Structures are given as C-alpha cells and as structure tokens.
Amino acid sequence: MRQFKARREPRSGTKTFFEHGRDEYLAAKVVPWVEPRRFCNALEEIHTPLGPLYKRSGYPWITLVLGSGCLEAGHDISGTRVRDVPAIVQRLLADVDPLPDGTNAAKLAGAFAASLIADRLGPSASRGSGDDSEAAAEPGDPRPQAGDSFDTTTDLKTAKLLLCAALLTRLYHLASAAAPDALSRTGHDRVSLPIGRAGSAELETDALQPVLVLLEELISSAEENGHDSEDAVLHQALATIDSSLSPRGHQPSLRVADIQLLTELCWYSLTQGTSVYPGWNDLLLHLSTRSSPALFDRWLPRPAFDDIDAACQFVEQRYAATTRLSWAQLEDDDQTDRERFYATVAAVLRQQAALREGFLQSSPLQPPIASAFVTSFDLELEMAMWRSSTEPFVVAVPMNLLQDVAEPATCLASVCWLGCLIRPDHDLTHSEQLERLRTPAEADWFLLNGDTAYELTYGNYPVVVRLSGSPLMRAPRLWTEDGSDWNDLCRRLLKDYHIELPSEPPDLNEPELRMAHVALLDEYSAMQHAASEFLVYQPDRSNERVRQGLPGALFGTRGSAFARFWMMMGVQVSDSSIRYRFASQMTVPTSIDGESVKKAPTPSRAGLVVNWRTDDTVRDLLGWYNFDVVTDRCENFQVDLQHYLRHLQSTTHRPAARKRCELT
Q1: DSSP class of residue 403?
Q2: Residue 141 burial by CB count (10 A; 0-12/13-18/19+): exposed, middle or buried?
Q3: Residue 139: CB partners within 8 Å, gap ≥ 6?
C-alpha cells in the first residue's frame, strides 16, 4: 500500500519561507556564534537526525534540480544595455504630441519600460550598474560584445507598443477608481468605462481617445505585416482591445487579461532575437504565437499543439540559435555568470562521481549516483560537462515511442526513458563538438530501466536527467543504418513493452515506429509521463520486476550513510505541468518492486528551493515535501556550491555543524 504524509509540523512553529534571500536563510539555519555563516554549516545542521553510519562515514549529498531561472544570471543582464531601453524609448517618441492632459507621452512610455524591466529582471536591471554619467545608447548603435547575455533591440514600433500598454494601464486604473466594482473570483477582471455619464468627459478625452488613436495606428501596421505569426497575434490582441473599447452598440470595457497579454507582447518584442534564453513564460508566449489555435483566452497564454511532435520542433527552433551563440561564447576569455554557474555544477557532478567510484558496488558506504535534474530545454549543463573533461557522462531523456505514425487517428505513444552515453572529444573543432553533443552516435543510446543493470554498467558515470525532455538532441533511429531492418534498440523496446515487431521492414519516409522527443509544456504530457513512473512490468523469461520510469538509483540512495539533499534552483514551480512532474517524481517509491522500504532516519529538511518568485500555493505544496523556499537569484548561491565542491575535493568531506568551517 502506498503511504504518504498525513501530518506536518505547524507552519507557525517552523519557518520555511525566506523572502529576504540567502542571508536570512543562513541566519535561521546556522547557530549565531558561527561566523561567517556558511551553507555547509546549514547542511550539517539539517543532517543531524541521520544515524550512526552517516555520522561515521557519510556527508551531505546535494542533488541539483535546475530550471529556466538558472539561465537568467542577473549580473550578466544588468551589465548590458537593457538599462538603456527607457532612454531609447523616450528618444524614439520625442516627436509624439503631449497627451490632452499635458502628460509627456515619451516620458510615460519610458517610465513604463523601466517598470517592465524591473519586474521581469529585478530592480537593479532597470537602474543599471554602471556609471550614472554614461550616455544611453542610440537606436541602431553597435551591439555590445558577444559575451553579453542580453542584447536589446528597440525600434519605433516597439516604443509605440510600450506607449500603448502604458496608456491602457493608466486607463484601467482611472476607470476602476471611477467605479470601484468588486473583484471577480476568476481573476478575469473587467472594468466598464462610464462613457456618456456625468463627469466622464475628462476620462474620455484625456485617457480613452489617445488610446483609440494609437490602437488604430498599431492595428494598421500589424495588418501590413500580417504574414508574420508574431504580427498576427499582435493584431488579434490589439483588435480585441479596440473592439471592447469602441462604443459600438455596447458599453466600452477593458479586461486586465488583455492588458497583461499586450504587456507580455511588449516584453517579447524587446527580447526576441537577443542573445539570452527565454524565461519560461516568455517561451510559452513565443510558442503560442507559433501554434494554432493558441489559448489566448486565459492567462498566462499557453500553446495548444494538436501533435505532440510539433512542440519539440518549435522548441528546437527557438533554442538552436541561442545555443550556438552560447557555445561560441565559451571560447572567450571572460566567463559570464551563467557560464561560471554551470561550470560549478558540472564540477560538483564529476567530483561526486569520482567519490562514488572509489567504493565497491555492494558497499553500504558507497555514495549515491551523481545525478542532476533539469526542467528547461537548454543544453548549458551538458555543454559545461563536455568542456570540463573528456570522461563520458550519461544523459537521461524521456521519449515517446510512436506507433502507426502514418495514421493520425490511430497514432499512439508509449512513454519510455532512454539513456545516452556522451563521449566528449576535444580534438574536434569547436563547432563540431557542439554538433557531436547534439547528435551522439546511434550505438550510444540504450533503454534506461532496471536499477541493478544500470548501476552495474553506468552507475559510476555522472548523469544529467532531462525531466522536461531534450528536443535539441537528435532522437535515435529505430532502424539499421542501411534502413533494411529494425535495430537492436527497437527490438529491446518492443520486447520489454510487449509490442509486436512489425512484419514489414521500415519505410524510411513513413516508418511504422519512430522515437520522438518529449517537450513537457502542458499538464496532459506531465500526467502521462508521471504515470509511467509507477508502472511495473516483468520482462520475458525474467523474475525481475522493472519499473517503466527512471531507475530508482538515479534519485534514491542505497543505505543510511547518505541522504540526498534536493536543491531546486530556478525551477519553474509556478507552472502546473512542471510542478506536477517534479512532485510526482518525489513520490515515486525508491525500491524496484514498489514495496515500502525500512524506515530510516531522514534529514530535518528534504531540500531547498531557490526562486525569484513563488506563490502561496506552490509554497504550501513544497511544505508538505519538507522543502524550504528562499526568494533569491540562483547566482547568489554559486559561492555556496563552490564551497561545497571544495569539501568534496578535500579530505574533509563533512562540514562542521556548529563551529567555523576551516575551508576557505
């Protein structure tokens, strides 16, 4: 019987949310007489409940879970010309007439741009970190050096879009103040404009008319470029707002969701084609402009793909150019914060694997498998692993085995996990190395199941687990190189999953069976893949029961000498599909047969979540799983990971709980 937690400590008695960041967290976890307070002190304090085997031979074992927030290195962003956007917007709109009430339209749009940047990237990004006397860049000036991770392009169209969003935001608040209606339970609030009523002339003249004039101009411009999907979406959004505001037989009104969508389109217009990866919400919006129909009737917009294969193609298109640029920047002498962060994570993984390799497979003192989990679609960690050593490492990738590919009505998918042994080759040219990483040899792919088999063959390799999929890697073929027959990987898959081998050889144009990447973008996919973690099957002529999902050894532990400390950094936990997928992974039984294992002492906290934004619902769920939540940037914990790495590299693996750490 599956058992789960039925009671937890009262929230009033245990502080689990640290809204003021890393320093507040360390102050709560480390005794006051220890100076300086370090993360290693907190780790050892958390591991105090563990038994004698840990106290004699164990030490903290961090397992990292990395999300899209890790790609947003704050110092990289604030050190670029994103801070110049408000000034650029003001210059572009310098010739725009003042609003009827005398407000300077250019300054209004510039202030709105500054608030938008501050909200998306943090206040420091909008203020800038350089000399205050530095002149703002002119539109069309040469771009910053290639090492910058945020390269802004701002044109007149974007400036006018920002002005439109600013005017609509102002109109909404003015109309709300005039008629303070109750807020709705759905969150889809709409304000009615009191046009034609007593006292409404000023609102209509000063706030509504300027918006309608600008909307007409922007709609006309979007129609001229309607062949672009982005302009089609923009046209749809602008036309919807214009229709709701124009008094054509109905009471003019304005929805918050429409303003939110237009604001996101402003941010999208600022950042598209730049040198940074998209944030998670930015990615969803971008994909929504590519899919048809997109779900723009809810907030946040989500792509609505009719084919699970199509999502991967769009993700690959969005990330490919940024990945190539990021890989090229690795040759520069100056490292960005993002590069240093992922290099540190790669070093931790490789050092953990080296420590595990020093023990016999059957030893109760052998550390867990060195694994890190990723919930975004980039290849930053794999690139850092490749660069750090020529020693192989494993990438675990969720896949869909597609059957009856040529018949959409009957096409079925089976969830499976494949592993790929990546063999770094530094003798190749720089561009060839990235290509080899993305297109590994067919022979290096293998079916990922069965704890015993995996530990014996691959247990000493560090492993990167792609929870959301890895569309940037080429999926393995299921047929031989000459296309005359189905290959060994296909036969093993069909045998273990009890699927009949096709009687005909593969048709390379429309093969009956094909592997397709996963792109975890919706709850439907999340539920299908989470369900596979609990399915157990028995291979032919075998007494072994094998779970269809990830081997438990990748996220569990063998004995009581070690306990994984889950460190979730920048994971998009506010997204329902990602949250569901990770939470289900945490509830998977670690034993192969699904039976309850002997109760062993556990750390006082299961792990730590570092995120710039979380809401109450997310924090409540994480509380049940015994996680602390810290509101902070991921790069602010990089020094702690580097210090932890020094512990792994020294003979003093285990830190002191209540005294000063001697490692620098």
Answers
A1: E
A2: exposed
A3: 88, 91, 92, 154, 155
Cα distance between residue 140 and residue 91, in whole Å: 12
Q: From CA 321, how far away is CA 92, in angstroms rounded?
A: 29
Using a 10 angstrom Cβ sphere, with 0-12 exposed, 13-18 middle and 19 or more buried, the burial of residue 6 is exposed
Q: Looking at the whole model, is its pTM more than 0.85?
A: yes
Type of residue numbered 490: C
Pairing verdict, β 463-466 and 536-537? unpaired
Q: Tell the residue number behind the tokens 């689990």, with chain if given.
A: 16
Distance from C-alpha of 390 to C-alpha of 388, rounded to nearest angstrom: 7
How is residue 50 written in tokens? 């563990």
pLDDT above 70 (res 79): no
Q: CA 35 to CA 659: how far, in whole Å?
A: 8
- β pairing state of 17-18 and 371-374: unpaired
* Cβ pair 66, 376 in contact under 8 A: yes
Lowest-confidence range among 419-428, 458-467, 489-498?
Answer: 489-498
Give residue-wise pLDDT tens across range 566-581: 999 999 988 888 888 8
The candidate with the shortest Cα–Cα distance to 66, out of 277, 317, 369, is 277
Please give the DSSP secondary-structure letter assigned to residue 478. Answer: S
- ∠ CA 13-14-19, nearest 5°, is 125
Secondary structure letter of residue 243 according to DSSP:
H
Of 261 and 464, the structure prediction assigns the larger pLDDT to 464
Distance CA(50)–CA(603), nearest Å, equals 6
Q: How many CB atoms lie within 10 A of CB 32?
A: 7
In the chain, the largest separation of any two C-alpha atoms, in whole Å, equals 85
Q: Is 421 helix (H, G, I), strand (E, B) or coil?
A: strand
Please check whether residue 478 is in contact with residue 511, taking contact to mean a CB–CB distance below 8 angstroms.
yes
Q: Torsions phi, psi of 398, nearest 5?
A: -75, 140
Each residue of 137-173: pLDDT tens digit? 444 444 344 334 344 567 899 999 999 999 999 999 9
The H or E element containing residue 537 is strand 536-537
Share of the chain above pLDDT 70, in %: 83
Cα–Cα nearest to 230, from 157, 126, 169, 167: 157
- Model confidence at 327, pLDDT cuts 50, 70, 90, reads very high
* Dist CA 629 CA 39 (whole Å): 15
Angle, nearest 10°, between helix axes 380-388 and 430-438? 120
Expressed in angstroms, the distance from the first to the final Cα of the chain is: 48
Residue owning tokens 């990830």? 550
Angle CA 387–391–392, to nearest 5: 100
Long-range contacts of 434-440 (CB under 8 A, 24+ apart): 434/323, 434/324, 434/327, 434/383, 437/379, 437/382, 437/383, 437/386, 437/473, 438/379, 438/472, 438/473, 438/474, 439/473, 439/474, 440/473, 440/474
In the predicted structure, residue 213 carries a pLDDT above the cut 90: yes
Q: Would you put residue 464 in left (φ > 0), alpha (ψ -120 to 50) or beta? A: beta
Contact 497, 478 (CB under 8 A): no
Any residues with CB less than 8 A from the CB of 291 and at least 6 apart, and which? 303, 304, 305, 310, 314
* Tokens representing residue 117 in the block: 């940047």
Task: Please state, in angstroms and rounded to a whole number, the distance separating the CA atoms of residues 504 and 455.
Answer: 36
